[in-house]
Amino acid sequence: MNNIDQLVDEIVKRIKPEVNTVEVEASGRHIHLDRPTIDALFGEGYQLTKAKDLSQPGQYACKERITIASGKNSFQNVVILGPERPAAQVEVSATDATSLGLRVPVRESGDIEGTPGIVLINGTQSVILKTGVIVAKRHIHITEEDARRFNVSKGEIVQVKIEGARALIFDDVVIRVSADYATSMHIDYDEANAVGFKKGIRGEIIKKSEK
């Protein structure tokens, strides 16, 4: 390989991460609350306190923490994510679900029909959710501009290849497109451990139609 070829190869390596891949983020167990549940746990009209912004525009972690409990086990200090949702939802990993003794389906956010319930506890106040516990389906938030660049569409199922010491290909990854998003892939801690997650890791989108 001559010097020019080496230079071109180096340039390609530098720009490829931004052009052909998306950043991957790992998410731990968390809760989304609706207004009636906030009122029941914290008092009527209570406003959750923003602690820090998250990578998705308008999304934030709250200062408040609560306990989630099943008949078998419980987790304390579970973070609440804002803003308020139309329905309360608890997102856990498959490992968490086993610890709680619950059979929790893999679902997209908001798809809670037929899911198991759980008890939410804040001090002496508690709420029994009849449904709402899910293992979040791995997904990519993507802007409309990036969706066109990657040639993917809302609801499309793709694979994502991640390099590294524990390289693997995630299958069954759903594309979620919105002008309000920042482009990034979301996985849970079980998936993060499987891939040897480190902050800043990136994944290459593979369209199934191109395999």
Describe the structure.
This protein is α/β, with parallel strands linked by helices and 211 residues long. It has two domains: 80 residues, Barwin-like endoglucanases; 110 residues, no CATH class. The protein is 22% helix and 39% strand. The chain has five helices and 15 strands. The strands form two sheets. Strands 2, 3, 4, 5, 6, 7, 8, 9 and 10 form a nine-stranded mixed β-sheet that branches. It has a six-stranded mixed barrel with strand order 1-14-11-13-12-15. A hairpin with a 5-residue loop joins strand 12 and strand 13. It is globular, with a radius of gyration of 20 Å.
Please provide a brief summary of the model.
The chain is 22% helix and 39% strand. It is of the alpha/beta class.
Order of helices and strands: HEEHEEEEHEEEEEHEEEHE
- Helices and strands: which structural class? alpha/beta
The radius of gyration computed from the alpha-carbon positions, rounded to a whole number of angstroms, is 20 Å
**What is the overall silhouette?**
globular
Taking pLDDT < 50 over at least 5 consecutive residues as the criterion, the unreliable ranges are: none
Number of strands: 15
- Assign a percent range to the helix content: 10-25%
Task: Please give the alpha-carbon distance between the first and last residues.
Answer: 30 Å
The DSSP helix count reads: 5
Total separate domains: 2
Mean pLDDT: 92
Strand content: 35-45%
Largest sheet: 9 strands, mixed
